[in-house]
Structures are given as structure tokens and as C-alpha cells.
Design brief:
Radius of gyration of chain B: 34 Å
Oligomer: heterodimer
Order of helices and strands of chain B: HEEEEHHHEHEH
Number of helices of chain A: 7
Number of helices of chain B: 6
Strand content of chain A: 5-15%
Number of domains of chain A: 1
Helix content of chain A: 40-55%
Radius of gyration of chain A: 24 Å
């Protein structure tokens, strides 16, 4: 019986191909990456067969299952101006630091009275706000969402006109709601838009996998 | 960190000639590879692959004068009533009558609402299909196809669908219906509030409380 010889030297593996592949992937992901934006609340949009892709430049209102409204807008400069206008209307003094933080913030859903605390808060406080706040008020007595939309839309229009943004890249209105949200809340948000003469919407949906024959 | 390992060379007598090194210089690449994989993991986890899809919907402009309300009681219309019942659609053809027998129901499946739309909108679907064949065979360009399809879908005698949703209906149901309308090439539809009479009717036939 011959003995199996165990090689004494440490086994060495040529890792070059693996490393090559890894760097290839790194390059690929770096070039294609479009970062996921932070979502204030988890939303599961209903699915549809539509193949249209959501435009880049949007004013987005999110409605969660509880009927709370969240607001998001693209464009840092526009957001900065928007905050100062909203501050004037609701008599809240926002500092330059606030405006800076607000301009890079993603979706938010707090009433104006809590907004300053939300902007200044850290990640933990914001999470707490996202979980517990009542959302942006949408009732007709205290229609803060309407003000957000009106000011944001005006600012956007002005920005797009002064910067000669091509018409096809102009801001679109996106509504993102959970499939289980009551229609009542969605209807109210659509109504708020329509009250401000905005009648064309993009409803955000998931891709339906089932094929239509 | 990079170390160059070498052997041979110095340590010999003065008189010996200097020899060219035979080993190639080796660099320890481990840290670089570590960093590479770290970046790889980061990018894999943060990229968003499928962009969200959207459905475009245009609502009618609200008239400034409330008395000038739009009349949409078309005799050829198909009216859908969406309620809190998640898997049922109630619908009737033509103008509303106070008669429970006109209301039929179906569900959201392929054999349900899609069939209702397909039967109702057969002419338009056939015409659009013919047009699409032409597009595939390169007989007409893309823009012409879009324009002609729009014309067919928006024709005066094309099917008109009114979607009336109860406040307790789920958003998913509305999106499903709009999606089915798009599948069935229905170009004319409106999203309207349910009327008190219709609500009462649904109550009497026991659909809602």
C-alpha cells in the first residue's frame, strides 16, 4: 500500500482571473450605479403591465397604507428656495444650515411645526418621525400639502424656464401609493393637485411579470 | 504594504559579477483585492436595478363654473363600480336606471374584466392589431403608428368607460382597472366619484353596508 503524499508547501492558487473578474464587476457597477433613494416608509406599489419608465425629474407624493402623505422633490436649488417660501408662509425661521440640510434630504412627511426638528435631527430622530408623525396634513382646513405643491411647482417652472431645460425633461408629477391604501386618500391627493390646475399624473407601479398574449 | 521579495544578489565575494535577478518582482496584492471586493459589495448592494415603472393618467380639467359640470352619461358608456370588495367589479352598460337587474359583476382575472373589455372594444382592438402588424412589417413608421392608434382609440364611436370608485376601494383595484383598460386599448375613460343613487343601489343588493 502506497502512502498518499501530502505536499509540504502551502497550496497556492492563481487568483488573477478572479481578481480580474471582481474588478470588472466593480467597474460595471460603478458606471451603472444609480443609487437607491431613501424611502421614509416602505411602500409596495400595485403592479401593472406598463413599460414606461419613471422620468428623472419629478415632484413626488407618497401615500402609505395609513393614508399619510409624504413629499419629495428633485433639484437642490429649487428645494432651497421652496423651504424659504414655506418658512415665510408659516412664519418659521429656517437658518442657512437648515436650508442646506433640507436641499439634500429625501422624502419627508411631517407637518410644518415639526419640520425644523426633522431637518436638524439625526438619522434616529428622523426614523422616529417617519414612523410616528401624522404625515403632511392634507385636510381642507390645514392643507399644507397643497402649499408644498403650489410653491414647489412655481419654483420648478421658474427654474426650468431660466435654465432653458428642454420641455421633455420638465418636472412631472408622480404619485406613489401602496396597493392597500384606501382610494379616499389617493383621491384627496389627486384633488389637491387638480385644485392647482395640475391634471396629468404618473402613477408609480411595479412591473407585472405575467404576459399579455 | 507592497513588498518586493527578492533573492540572490548581494552577499557574495567582491570579484563576482553582478548577475541580473532571475525572479520577477512580486507585489502582495491582497489589500488591493480586499478593497476591490469591498467596493464590489458596496455597489452591488446600493444599485437600483429595475427603475420603477409608471402609468400616465390625464384627468379632465375641472371647470371653473360648478354649474357647467361635464355630462358623461353617454348611452354607449360602460360604467364600472369599484367597492371595498377586493375581488369583485360591478358594472352596467349605458345610462343608469334604478333597476338592480342592470348591474352585473365580474372579477379582476383574465376571464373576468379583461374579457368584458375585449368583447366591448373588439373593433378597436382589431384595428390596432392590424396597425401593429404594419408597424412590425415596416410599412409605417413609429410616429405614424402612434398617431393612427391614438385616432382609432379616441374615435367618436369608440368605447367609453367610466370608472367609479367608492372611497373604501383599494388603490390597487383602481390601478388594476386602468391597467386593464390600457391592455384592451380603451382610449377614453374617466375616473369619477360614485353617485349617491348608485351607492344606494349597491346597498340594496347587499354589496356594501
Amino acid at each position: 500500500m502506497g502512502k498518499i503524499k501530502i505536499p509540504k508547501s502551502a497550496p497556492s492558487l492563481d487568483m488573477t482571473p478572479m481578481v480580474d473578474l471582481a474588478f470588472l464587476l466593480v467597474t460595471f457597477f460603478m458606471l451603472t450605479a444609480k443609487f437607491r433613494v431613501n424611502e421614509a416608509v416602505p411602500i409596495l406599489p400595485p403592479s401593472s403591465h406598463s413599460e414606461k419608465i419613471l422620468p428623472e425629474n419629478t415632484l413626488q407624493v407618497t401615500i402609505d397604507t395609513g393614508g399619510r402623505a409624504f413629499f419629495a422633490l428633485d433639484g437642490q436649488e429649487v428645494r432651497r428656495n421652496l423651504l424659504s417660501e414655506m418658512g415665510q408662509k408659516y412664519k418659521i425661521m429656517f437658518t442657512d444650515a437648515d436650508a442646506k440640510r433640507f436641499s439634500v434630504m429625501s422624502e419627508f412627511g411631517v407637518p410644518m411645526s415639526q419640520l425644523q426638528a426633522y431637518i436638524r435631527g439625526g438619522e434616529k430622530e428622523r426614523l422616529k418621525f417617519d414612523k410616528e408623525s401624522i404625515g403632511i396634513p392634507i385636510d381642507s382646513v390645514n392643507n399644507q400639502l397643497g402649499d408644498w405643491i403650489a410653491f414647489a411647482w412655481n419654483e420648478k417652472q421658474r427654474f426650468q424656464q431660466t435654465n432653458n431645460v428642454p420641455k421633455e425633461n420638465w418636472c412631472r408629477i408622480a404619485i406613489k401609493a401602496d396597493g392597500q391604501t384606501n382610494y379616499k386618500a389617493v383621491k384627496r391627493v389627486i384633488q389637491i393637485f387638480q385644485d392647482r390646475n395640475l391634471n396629468s399624473f404618473n402613477l408609480i407601479t411595479n412591473m407585472e411579470t405575467e404576459q399579455v398574449e | 504594504m507592497a513588498e518586493i521579495m527578492e533573492s540572490g544578489g548581494g552577499g557574495h565575494g567582491k570579484h563576482q559579477k553582478k548577475r541580473a535577478k532571475k525572479h520577477s518582482a512580486r507585489i502582495d496584492m491582497t489589500p488591493m483585492v480586499d478593497l476591490g471586493f469591498l467596493l464590489l459589495t458596496f455597489f452591488v448592494l446600493t444599485t437600483q436595478f429595475s427603475k420603477p415603472k409608471t402609468m400616465e393618467i390625464n384627468m379632465p380639467v375641472i371647470p371653473k363654473d360648478p354649474n357647467k359640470n361635464m355630462k358623461i352619461e353617454a348611452p354607449t358608456a360602460l360604467t364600472l363600480l369599484l367597492t371595498e370588495k377586493k375581488d369583485k367589479i360591478y358594472y352596467y352598460y349605458g345610462v343608469y336606471k334604478n333597476d338592480a337587474s342592470i348591474i352585473k359583476n365580474t372579477d379582476y382575472s383574465k376571464e373576468g374584466i379583461r374579457k368584458v373589455f375585449r368583447d366591448r372594444n373588439k373593433d378597436v382592438i382589431d384595428q390596432v392589431k392590424k396597425l401593429k402588424d404594419k408597424l412590425i412589417n415596416h410599412q409605417i413608421p413609429d410616429t405614424t403608428y402612434k398617431r393612427l392608434a391614438m385616432n382609432i382609440k379616441g374615435a367618436k364611436d369608440a368605447v367609453f368607460v367610466i370608472v367609479k370608485a367608492d372611497e373604501k376601494a383599494k388603490y390597487k383595484n383602481i390601478v388594476d382597472v386602468i391597467d386593464e383598460l390600457n391592455i384592451a386599448d380603451v382610449g377614453k375613460y374617466a375616473l369619477v366619484d360614485i353617485s349617491p343613487a348608485e351607492k344606494l343601489m349597491l346597498k340594496t343588493i347587499g354589496v356594501i353596508k
